[in-house]
Amino acid sequence: MDIDTEAPAPSLVTQIVTPGSAITSDSAYMRGHGTFGEHGTIYSSVAGVVERINKLVSVRSLKQRYGGEIGDIVVGRITEVASKRWRVDVNSRQDGMLLLSSINLPGGIQRRKSDSDELQMRSFFAEGDLVFAEVQSYFADGALSLHTRSIQYGKLRNGTFVSVFPQLVPRSRTHFHTLPCGVDVVLGVNGYIWVSKHVPVAQVEANAEHIYSDENESISDDERESIARVANCIGLLNRLYVKITDTSIIFAFEASLPYPVKDLLSIDVATELAHNVTSRLKLQA
Q: Are 83 and 91 in contact (CB under 8 A)?
């Protein structure tokens, strides 16, 4: 497989290689992670996806744990409430940490956290809660330090959880999307995705004191079906290893409309829809 030297940027359509596959013999390219050189040709040393950044060629492994970077937007699950911190499963080699000092208090109040705040930590986040957060730093042992000091971050409600391969979710300017079908999607770069009912930002800001509520809002049957359809579309994109972005999700959703939601789980329908999505992505690229 030769890389297209005229391509201005990496395509949304993935190019999968196996160990020993020839990637390019163009001497203008440099070897990156997951590759080796022999007789002037760059080969893949792992099974994965070819990535190109300018003239650097690398191969990202198909299955790997999420490796965090500062500024990443992640979705995580609270696994433990400890002293002045929560332990969060972020699909990495070790759990992330969300410090009590790194969250917003109900109503957006800005003040130092007190002993009384520590006593009611479970009223903010309890074991099993899903949280939308940002990576702000690393601890000495390599664990990720998270924060939710923004109105857009916090506890996730009114939806369903989907887990995908982390390498299928590219980093972008925004990871919170409102789809035309009236569904909100949070694309965590760690491979955890949240699909939920659309809630206007103005409504969230007006009810800032309820950001830690455990009660879901009323969700209609049509909204439930749209949420389930989007979740199944993300699942089929993951099964057939297609990059998961707001664009690919919209394409998959539109292509899935002739089928009942439950049929999207069948391999025949999933394969057909994935081919439809990759074709449209190629045309767009």
A: no
